[in-house]
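Prompt: May I have another protein with tokenized structure?
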Amino acid sequence: MVETPNKGHISYERHKQNYSDASYGEIDEKSSNSDILSPHEGIFCHYCDSKKCPCCLYEVNHYYNYGLSRLKITICTDCYSEIYTNGRSMTSDLVTKAFTRICETITASATFWNNYRDRQRVNYFVAVQNAFDMNPEVRAYLGENCKIDKNLKGLWSFTYAIINGQDHGIKVLDKDPDNLLLSVDYK
């Protein structure tokens, strides 16, 4: 789960490519050898807008619309290092633990608040703030000095995963980014 900041000068329309089905090195039986890019042709990096060799590119998820939407983009190794190694070491284990802690907090909050009017409703950003306050993994992932709201780009990949993945029995009651309400499915 990664996201890339938008520098504002990148035009996704110019380099329009179909990212709906990522093949990750697999070749479609219908495509001929002429359809495969040679190392000399290159592809453009969506971040720096430079033509790069295909071996120097990563396909990553770009989250937008406050984490409600996702697009696959291609970025070069230089931009990848600039974006994802901003002085903090982030392991996949840390990201997984932070995501799990947030989901656990949402579940616990939905179970704890059991009055009739707001039964099982949880405001997503309040639950994330509670997880941030109680769990060092969430603080390490989001950074110590952050404001938890819809504009926190580090949270967008989690938002997307929770809203679209139905993980941990969490269901969405309202997708409004200003008032993102969740519930827990007790099947």
In short: The beta strands are 43-44, 51-52, 57-64, 69-76, 122-123, 170-174, 181-184.
